[in-house]
Amino acid sequence: MAAGALLAAGLVLALGPAASEVGRPGEQRSRVRVLSAANWSLVLQGQWMVQFYAPWCPACQQIEAAWENFAKESEHLDTTVGKVDVTQEPGLSGRFFVTTLPTIYHAKDGVFRRYRGSRTSEDLQGYVLERKWEAVEPVAGWKSPSSLMMHGMAGLFHLSGCIRQIHSYFTGTLGIHVWGSYAIFILATLLIGLILGLILVLIADCLCPSKARYREEASVEWIEKENAELTAVEEVEEAEELSANELEEAAEEKDISDGEDGARSSEEANSSEAGSEEDSAVDEGSGTEETEDICEQPPTDSENQSSVRQRKSQVADNGL
Fold this sequence. Notes:
alpha/beta; five-stranded mixed beta sheet; 11 helices
């Protein structure tokens, strides 16, 4: 039984979407193409309508019949209808950045648009026949599923799916407690971080120059800098000493010049005093001479007239 299931799964993987469309014996063939990480690039060519769903999603179960009817009319619409199980293809759901279920995308030659209308078969057919998708703004280039950024997002979603599967294996198959599984993941994360850090250190050592050589060069530069600073300090000290000596010499010269100036000033003061005494003596002599001259001067005319008048008055008094 298990071998038969494994053989059937191997046939589905080998044949791809064609085998999934055949279905079980007695069932009507489905025209919905099953997309996976291996064949999703088919969406980049032609016109597609792709639904992202999950088996446990009630909304996805409600539109399953309408989606199948829409796929039956796809030949007349020149459109290919596909679906993606996000539980089986986490990487592909991350590439399209699917956050709600169900999510429907319209693709035309690699240009993607999000379908947000009604999910009935008639509305889906009208969206394609009436070319209503032309009025919808396409997904930005950096968010396009074929962009480099979304390629990295697909890797992250795929990694999360692998971690979920490993966690289920630890807790379900091995019977490890949930917290024990978390502890294992924490230790594995730390170990991977240490390994990546060691790899980065090795790469840096290979690409960058040796640290010892760098330290030697830095030490030589530091010694040269210290020597230059010492020489500069010594030159400053020598200059200060020279300036101090020059100041002392200048002070001595100033003292000598001040002494000579004092002697000269005292001599000049003495000579000035002697000259002043001579001048005073001369002045006194000149004063006596002037008094003598004044005494020797004859009487003036006014004095003669006054004496004549006095004599006349005396004669008149005697005649009376």
